[in-house]
Recover the amino acids of this structure.
């Protein structure tokens, strides 16, 4: 009965998750919006590392190979929340913005020993911007204003599986379904008012594979290496446009009413990732990840912008006491991390990069259970004020609640 209620909770939360996808950054104007930097369990506090993170009681969305390590007869379910306080600034102005979102829901469970399956839903990209553009009126010294507003984004539903093929080697695959709409409204304020609303729908499938291999233990230290490959894919798109004109006298005239057009496919790049995680002296765990996304192979370009190859470097450090677990705080995990992202967009010959520093805690909720509340705080920066661009400084709080329960256990009858 409890498990049925949990499934209903996951389904109802999924509806909220798809609807709640808030952001406010001018860089979401380009492409499909800004990438949602979601991490499960305590990986946000570790700088979003995770390619080589092997944990039988936590969900790892970065590498499906970890599913081969899930504890038999266990059931993992997790949902996350985050809140962001950002300051957007240029050379002359600044603006403060607050956003909050559901970040993900996910479940994972074993099919049998050394074989696990995962299912999840999370935002893939987010779009949110309002931009005013002043345009000259031809043959006149007057100008008119065009206000462009964008909302929406894409969601990602994934199915993944992992299997331990050897004692120290796990392999995994991940199939993701991307879907959603990016809505853009353009309002022109001249002698009359013109409104153009575009609903841009995209959809497609992504495929990822990964491995994790644990090296022989040396002087009590255990090291795992991991890798992932994501194949390139194209997202097909359609546009529905509605537009109308309102004269100065107040009468409205429909120009287009739900006119449908095909959009050019949006290409997602081939990417690969490598990671290494080491457990040192039973107290410390270090993680180092590198990812490369080959955007220049997609040949996508817009006006004064172009897509360039993207590199992501991440480092994480976790401490947990190896003493006898007599007190609550000896069971807490303490985390720190750093993440640098070179970005994939170049505007006015300036690459839009970002970084963040993170601190986190893994707080156990039950003495004899692995259920954990993972909290993290991140501070970071994206963009620059150089070349008349915009810089975002942000503070982010993340909450991931990771439940660990029993599954497929037969009830004993006395």
């Amino acid at each position: 009965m409890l498990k049925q209620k949990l499934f209903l909770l996951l389904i109802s939360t999924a509806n909220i998750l798809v609807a709640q996808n808030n952001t406010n950054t001018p860089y979401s104007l380009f492409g499909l919006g800004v990438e949602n930097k979601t991490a499960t369990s305590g990986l946000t506090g570790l700088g979003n590392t995770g390619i080589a993170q092997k944990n039988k009681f936590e969900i790892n969305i970065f590498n499906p190979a970890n599913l081969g390590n899930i504890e038999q007869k266990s059931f993992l379910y997790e949902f996350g929340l985050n809140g962001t306080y950002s300051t957007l600034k240029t050379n002359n102005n600044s603006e403060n913005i607050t956003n909050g979102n559901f970040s993900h829901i996910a479940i994972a469970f074993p099919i049998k020993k050394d074989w696990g399956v995962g299912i999840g839903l999370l935002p893939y990209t987010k779009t949110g911007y309002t931009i005013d553009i002043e345009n000259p009126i031809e043959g006149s010294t007057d100008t008119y204003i065009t206000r462009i507003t964008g909302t929406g984004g894409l969601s990602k539903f994934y199915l993944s599986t992992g299997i331990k093929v050897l004692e120290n080697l796990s392999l995994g695959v991940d199939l993701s379904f991307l879907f959603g709409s990016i809505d853009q409204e353009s309002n022109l304020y001249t002698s009359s008012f013109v409104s153009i609303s575009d609903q841009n729908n995209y959809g497609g499938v992504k495929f990822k594979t990964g491995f994790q291999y644990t090296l022989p233990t040396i002087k009590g230290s255990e090291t795992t290496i991991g890798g992932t490959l994501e194949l390139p894919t194209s997202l097909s798109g359609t546009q529905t446009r509605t537009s109308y004109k309102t004269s100065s006298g107040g009468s409205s005239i429909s120009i287009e009413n739900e006119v449908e057009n095909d959009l050019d496919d949006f290409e997602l790049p081939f990417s690969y990732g490598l990671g290494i995680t080491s457990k040192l002296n039973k107290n410390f765990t270090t993680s180092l990840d590198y990812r490369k996304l080959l955007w220049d192979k997609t040949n996508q370009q817009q006006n004064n912008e172009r897509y360039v190859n993207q590199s992501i470097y991440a480092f994480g450090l976790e401490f947990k006491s190896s003493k006898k677990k007599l007190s609550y705080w000896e069971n807490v995990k303490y985390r720190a991390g750093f993440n640098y992202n070179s970005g994939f967009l170049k505007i006015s010959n300036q690459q839009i990069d970002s970084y963040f520093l993170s601190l986190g805690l893994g707080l156990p909720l039950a003495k004899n259970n692995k259920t954990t509340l993972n909290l993290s705080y991140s501070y970071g920066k994206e963009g620059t004020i150089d070349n008349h661009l915009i810089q975002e400084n942000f503070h982010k709080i993340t909450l991931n609640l990771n439940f660990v329960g029993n599954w497929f256990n037969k009830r004993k009858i006395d």
Observations:
- Residues 2-233+268-406 form a domain with the Porin fold (CATH 2.40.160.60).
- Helices lie at 2-19.
